[in-house]
Design goal:
alpha/beta, UDP N-Acetylglucosamine Acyltransferase, domain 1, nine-stranded mixed β-sheet, seven-stranded parallel β-sheet, 3 helices, 25 strands, 13% helix
């Protein structure tokens, strides 16, 4: 596991009611302050819809007002950002259409030349003061279409990590040990997930909270990973188990053409 220290909180969720309380709760889930909310929404209304490379160029300049961009980043139209001041994009980052980044404390950081594909969701959603919440993605990574990363316990991706479509990386878990009480009142655990360099996650696989995946490993499509994965191994299944070590002998090309 990533850490022996679990975060267990049992706050009762606040209902989204009508009136001023509901409005206040909504705004607290969108931005740090009302002025920040208004500023960010103004930027989206003015520039977020503009298509083609023209819109990408305009957002690369104007979105610096609301988020941190180191160098130049390409943001397509209809990308949704929340708590934009807690988002940091490094040079060469590409956010495809339909991407949703919800940062809040402690934010989202995406490394150089990393790509987040259409429909992916990166969601920190830390409203319980969890100490390690946040999402950090290294260089040259690819987050596949409709992948979901939940960062309440903290998610750390190394360099050259590829997630295939519909991958889920979920650094949070509900407690449901008391059958007499609704699980939403029993708290959550949030241990965190670490995925080291050069890992490939197959389509539809799920990485559960508390897991560390070692460098150079591969997770087969449709797997559910519930325990740590050693470096340079192929795992698969539900729950995922080690299939074999990754070596040239175990994975021969057998005359197939390899493209680079």
């Amino acid at each position: 596991m990533v850490t022996d220290q679990r975060v267990l909180t049992a706050e009762k969720p606040e209902p989204l009611t009508h009136g001023s309380h509901g409005v206040r709760l909504y705004l607290q889930r969108q931005a740090d302050t009302l002025p920040r909310y208004l500023l960010e929404q103004l930027m989206y209304a003015m520039f977020g819809w503009i298509p083609t490379i023209i819109g990408i160029g305009i957002r690369a300049i104007m979105y610096r007002i609301i988020l941190s961009i180191k160098g130049w980043a390409a943001i397509e139209n209809h990308v949704r950002l929340r708590f934009a001041n807690r988002i940091k994009l490094h040079h060469g980052v590409y956010l495809d259409q339909g991407v949703y980044l919800h940062a809040c404390p402690n934010g989202i950081e995406i490394g150089e030349n990393s790509i987040v594909m259409h429909g992916a969701v990166l969601h920190v959603y830390n409203f319980r003061n969890l100490p390690h919440a946040g999402i950090r993605i290294g260089k040259d990574c690819l987050i596949g279409e409709y992948s979901v990363i939940r960062g309440q316990g903290g998610v750390w991706l190394g360099d050259r990590v590829y997630t295939s479509p519909f991958t889920q990386i979920l650094a949070v878990n509900h407690v449901f040990r008391n059958p007499e009480e609704p699980f939403i009142y029993q708290g959550i655990t949030a241990e965190g997930i670490i995925i080291e360099d050069d890992v490939w996650l197959g389509a539809g696989c799920i990485i559960t909270d508390g897991v560390k995946i070692g460098k150079g490993s591969v997770v087969a499509a449709g797997s559910v990973v519930t325990h740590d994965v050693p470096a340079h191994t192929l795992v698969g299944g539900v729950p995922a188990k080690i299939i074999r070590e990754i070596t040239e002998e175990n994975f021969p090309v057998n005359g197939r053409k390899v493209y680079f």
